[in-house]
Amino acid sequence: MVAAPFCAFKCTVSGSYNRLVGSFFIVCWRGLAANMPTVGVRRELLFKALGRAYTDEEFDELCFEYGLELDEITSEKEIISREQGDSKAAGASDVILYKIDVPANRYDLLCLEGLARGLQVFKNKLEAPRYRRVRPVSGESQKLIITKETEAVRRHAVAAVLRNITFTQERYDSFIELQEKLHQNVCRKRSLVAIGTHDLDTISGPFTYTAKPPGDISFKPLNQSQEFTATQLMSLYKTDSHLRHYLHIIEDKPVYPVIYDSNGIVLSMPPIINGDHSKITLKTRNVFIECTATDLNKAKIVLDMMVTMFSEYCLQPFTVEEAEVVYPDGKACIYPELAYRKEKLSSEFINRKVGINESTEKIAQLLTRMCLRSRATGVGDEIEVEIPPTRSDVIHACDIMEDAAIAYGFNNIIRTTPHTYTVANQFPLNKLTELLRQDLAAAGFTEALNFALCSQEDIADKLGKKISETRAVHISNPKTAEFQVARTTLLPGLLKTIAANRKMPLPLKLFEISDVVLKDETKDVGARNSRRFCAIYYNKSPGFEVIHGLLDRTMQLLEVKSARGDGYHIQAADVATLLKPPLHMKSLCRKSSSTSTPCKTNPGRLRPPALLIQKLCLVT
Amino acid sequence: MYISIYGNVSFVTPNHSGIYGPWGRHIRSLLRFAGLKYGGHRCGGDAPPSLQTLGDVISAELRSSKHWELTGEGTEIAEQGSHEARVFSSIPLEGLAQSELMKLSFGKIGFSKAMSNKWIRVDKAHEGGPRIFRTVENIEDQVREKLLLVQRGNSCELEEKEKNELKKRRLLSEVTVKSYWITKGSSFSTTVTKQETELTPEMIATGSWKEKTFKPYNFEAMGVALDCGHLHPLMKVRTQFRQIFLEMGFTEMPTNNFIESSFWNFDSLFQPQQHPARDQHDTFFLSDPALAHEFPQDYLQRVKRVHSEGGFGSQGYKYDWKTEEAQKNILRTHTTAVSARMLYKVAQQKFTPVKYFSIDRVFRNETLDATHLAEFHQIEGVVADYGLTLGDLMGVLHQFFTKLGITKLRFKPAYNPYTEPSMEVFSYHEGLKKWVEVGNSGVFRPEMLLPMGLPEDVSVIAWGLSLERPTMIKYGINNIRELVGHKVNLQMCCCYSYVTMYVLLN
C-alpha cells in the first residue's frame, strides 16, 4: 500500500529531483560548509606532483578518504564562459582544473604544494619534510624594527626570508594564490593578519614598521604608475572591487601602518597594498616576507605556512632564513618560529577513543602518514608524536586521535552499538503541541508554518499597534526589513498565508501552533519564547461560530469546562487597538490554567488564543 | 432523422464551450433526456465526450477549424485607419507641435510607426518646441487595407507572414472552432430510455430499482476532494524524526529559546571569538535586548581560560577572550547551544548517561536563495556516556538512518570547531548513482566538555542534519519558499502523500 504510490512519485518527479540533489547540501552544523575554502589546482600539475595520474573517480575517492572534497572539475575557459559569456572565454585556457574543498582549519592544504605534500605522505610515497630555520650565510640577519606608533593600529609583525628561490609562472601563481587564500581564511579578510612579500634585492634593511598619519605616507603602490598619499589611496580604492573590502580595517584610525626600508622606500601599507618598488617577479631570487597583525599567534601561523609551503623551491629545499623583529621595548624575536612540538600519548587512548585495536607501532605509522612523525618510545604503549609547524590545527590529543582514525580509514572502523540505557521523555510542551495539532487538523483546519522573523510593520503598524507597545526583540543587523524583529504574535503570518493563497476555494481554515518571542527581564538573555495557538477562518461570510466551535473543541481536548470562574468563557473585548477597523475582531478569549485538569502542565502556557473572523475583502 | 448541424453545434475554444445555434437547444434537451450530465463529473469532463457517450443513439465526430478575427483594436483600425495614418492625416501642411500630437489617443504609437515609414519628420530645433511635418504627399494605409480584407472574410488573400505580423500587433487573433458532426447512431431512437445515476431510498422502498438500468460509473474520473484539514508537510516529517528518536530512547531537549547568548551558542562550544560564523554577515545579533547577563561565573572563567591559554590538555587558541563578546545576544545559529546548556546541567550532578535530541528552528543571516532561508529546522542527536568510541557514533548513525530507510552509509573526515573527530555522513543515492551528504556528526571536543565539569572519561557523540532538505527532496520541491512561510502553496499542502520515511532520500 505504501510502496506503490511512492514508485509513482519516483517516476514523475525524476526531473526536478535530479536538479535538487545536484545541489544537495545539508546546512546544519556551523562553521563547516559555508567557510570551507576551495583551492583550484591544475590537474596535470597536481598529478605530476603526486607522481602518477588518477582517473577523476580515483582522485575523488582519495579526497574522500583524506577529508577533502573534489568539488568541481572545470577549466579556466569554462569558468569565464559561465561567468562572463562564451565570447569572453574564447582565448582562455582549457587546461583541466580541480576545485578542491579543504577543511577550514587545514591551512597547510591551501595550495598545490601543500596538497601534494600531504597526499604523498598519506600514500606513504614521501617522508614529511623537516623545515629548518637557518642563519644567513652573511651572518647578518634581516631586521624589522617595530616602532611605538603601531600600537594604535596594528601592533604585531613577524618576518622571514626565502633565500635563492626559483620561481616559474606556475609557482609564482601559486605563491600569490596562497597569500590570497590565507588572507581570506585564517587572516579573516586581512583584519587579523596581512601578508606582504617583497623582492629583497630591491630593498635594503633594516626595515622599520611604523604608523603615520595618512597624509604623511606617500608612495607608488603596486601596479600604479605614480605616487599617491595614503589619503588619496583610500579614495582611489573605494571603487576597487577587491581592495575596498579591506579599507575599513584602518580607515578611521588616526595613523596608518607602513613599512619602510633603510632608504625610506615603502614596502607596504598593511593591510591594504604593497609598494610597487619591491614587487615580486618571476626573476626574484630572494623574498622578504612580512606579516603584520592584530593577533600575534595567527601571524606566526601564517608566516610558518608561507615559508613551509614555498621553501621547497629554495636552493636548499625546506630551509628558511631567519629574520629578527625588534619590539619598541627593545625585545628581539627571531622568526619564523617553525616550532616542532612533541606530545606523548598512549596507543590505548587512541584505540579506546576510535574503537579499534591496533599495535603501538601500527598507530605510530598511521600518525606518521598524517605528517605527524611518531614513534613508539618503548615505555609501555607510549607514542611520541611530533607536531610540525604546518599543523597548527593540532591543539589537543583528540586532534591526534582523529588523524589516527583518518589514516586507519573511517570506513574501516567497525560500527558498534553503545550500551547506553536511557528512558525517552518528550518535552511536555511539545508533547501537548503534537497532540493538539493532530486534533486541530481532524477538526478541518490546515496547519500553516510561518517565519519567526518578520518586519516591525508586520507586528505593529499592520495590526494597528505601535512597535514600542510590543515586547518584541529587535535584530541589529538585518539584511532586509523581513528580519527586523522576532514575531510577537502568530496572526500576521496566518494573514499573509491567506493573502498569498486567495486563489484557493473558500472557506480557508488555518491554524498554527508555534513559538513567538517576547522580552523578559527575568531570563538570562532578557527574552523568552512563548508557545501560541492561532486559528483563522476566512470566508465570504464571517462565520464566528466556526472559530467559536474550534475554541470549544480545543478546550474540550484540554479538559477545560465552559464556565465562568473555574473554566473558560468568551467576553467582548475592545480590539480596535489590535486590528485596524474595518478589520474587526469579534472576540478574544482567555483561560487561566486550571489545576484540576489532567493537562495542567501546559494549558497555562498556551496563551489566549487569538480568534478572529474577518471579511473576505479585507485581506489584501 | 438526419441531423446536419455542422457549424451550429460548436465549442469555441479556448474561452467558450457550449452548444450553440438553432440546433443547440434540440441537442441539449436530447442530452438531458439521455441522462447525461452536461460536462459533469460522471461523464468525465467537458461536453464533447458527453456527446460521444451517447454512443449508439447518435454518433458525434469532432471537427475543428481555424479562422482569423479582428481584435477590438483591429476593428477600430478597419473603421478609422491605422494609428500612423491618422497621425499623418492630422498633421496640417504647416506642421504640428509634437506635444500636441502626443495628446491624441493614437499619437504615441502612430508617431513611431509613421516615423519608421518615413511619412513624417521631426524638426527638433523648431521655435516653440519640436514640430512635426509631413515628408510625403500621399500615403497608402496598408494595415487598414489588410484588416479590411480579413473583416470581409477574405483573409486567405493575405500571406501567413502578414497575418502573423498583425497578430503580433494584436490587431488579429486566430480563433479555433471545434464542431461536432452529428449523425444517427446504429440504435438511433427519438425516445431514449433514461438511465438512472444514483440509487435512491425511494427506489429501494418501492422496489423500482429492479426495473431500472443504471449508468455505469466512470472510474477514470477523480473522486471529490474531501473537506478536511491537513498538517503541514514539514511538520509531518518533523513528527517522523521525533518518533525515530523516541523509539531509540532519546529524550527531547527544551529548545524553546530562540534568543541565545554568544556564550552558549559559541564560546561554550569552544568556537573562537574571531570565527567567521560569529561575523555580522552570518549571525543575527540583537539590539534589544543586546546583552545577556548571569553566566555561571566559575564556568565562564574556565571557558575563558581554555580559549585564551588552553588547559585540559589543550594548547587553546591563544587570543584575548572577551566577556563582552560572549555577552552579545543573538538568534541561535544552531540547537547545539541548547545541547551545551543541557550538558552543562548534566555535569552539575553525579553523572548518569543521557541521550538527547531536538528538532527546532535556527537562524542564519545568510544570503537567501531557492534552497536557503534565514531560518530553518535543525535535527540534532546527542549521546553522553562513559567510553563512547568513534565506532559507537557510526553505529548509532547507522541505526538512526536505517530507520529512515537509508542503509548504505559512509563517513568522510570533516572539520567542525567543536567536534573532533568530525565526520560528514554520506548515503548512496540509488537514483543519482552517487553518494550524497545527509548529515554531519562528531565527538565533542574535550575543550568543550571538561570546562563544564563532565568526568574525563565521558565522551559525547552527536550529529545533526536539516529538516527542510530531506523534506524538499521527498516532495520534489525546488523552492523552499513553497514549503515554509506564508508563500506556501496550500493546494500543494493538501496533495502531499503520507510521509513514508524509509523512502525519504531514495
From TrEMBL, chain A:
Tell me the compartments it is located in: Cytoplasm
GO cellular component: a single term:
phenylalanine-tRNA ligase complex
Q: Which InterPro entries match?
A: aa-tRNA-synth_II/BPL/LPL, B3/B4_tRNA-bd, DNA-bd_dom_put_sf, Phe-tRNA-ligase_IIc_bsu, Phe-tRNA-synth_IIc_bsu_arc_euk, Phe-tRNA_synthase-like_B3/B4, PheRS_beta_core, PhetRS_B1
**Which Pfam family is one of this chain's hits?**
B3_4
Q: Does the keyword Ribosomal protein apply?
A: no
Query: Residues in domain B5?
Result: 338-415
Q: Which cofactor does it need?
A: Mg(2+)
Annotated GO biological processes are: phenylalanyl-tRNA aminoacylation
Q: Does the keyword NADP apply?
A: no
Q: Which UniProt keywords apply?
A: Aminoacyl-tRNA synthetase, ATP-binding, Cytoplasm, Ligase, Magnesium, Metal-binding, Nucleotide-binding, Protein biosynthesis
What broad class of enzyme is this?
ligase
Q: Which SMART domains match?
A: B3_4, B5
SUPFAM superfamilies reported in the protein's UniProt record: Class II aaRS and biotin synthetases, PheT/TilS domain, Putative DNA-binding domain
* Annotated EC: 6.1.1.20
One Gene Ontology term of the molecular function aspect:
RNA binding
As for family, the record states:
Belongs to the phenylalanyl-tRNA synthetase beta subunit family. Type 2 subfamily.
- Please report the name of this protein according to its UniProt entry: Phenylalanine--tRNA ligase beta subunit
From TrEMBL, chain B:
Q: Which top class of enzyme applies to this chain?
A: ligase
According to its UniProt record, the EC number is 6.1.1.20
Record's subcellular location = Cytoplasm
Q: What GO biological process, any one, is recorded here?
A: phenylalanyl-tRNA aminoacylation
Q: Is this entry keyworded DNA repair? A: no
Keywords in alphabetical order, please: Aminoacyl-tRNA synthetase, ATP-binding, Cytoplasm, Ligase, Magnesium, Metal-binding, Nucleotide-binding, Protein biosynthesis
Record's signal peptide: none
One annotated GO molecular function: metal ion binding
Stored InterPro entries: aa-tRNA-synth_II (IPR006195), aa-tRNA-synth_II/BPL/LPL (IPR045864), Phe-tRNA-synth_IIc_asu (IPR004529), Phenylalanyl-tRNA_Synthase (IPR002319), PheRS_DBD2 (IPR040586), PheRS_DBD3 (IPR040725)
- Tell me the ranges covered by the Aminoacyl-transfer RNA synthetases class-II family profile domain, including all copies: 236-473
Q: Which GO terms describe its cellular component?
A: cytosol; phenylalanine-tRNA ligase complex
Family, according to the entry, reads as follows: Belongs to the class-II aminoacyl-tRNA synthetase family. Phe-tRNA synthetase alpha subunit type 2 subfamily.
What is the protein name given in its UniProt record?
phenylalanine--tRNA ligase
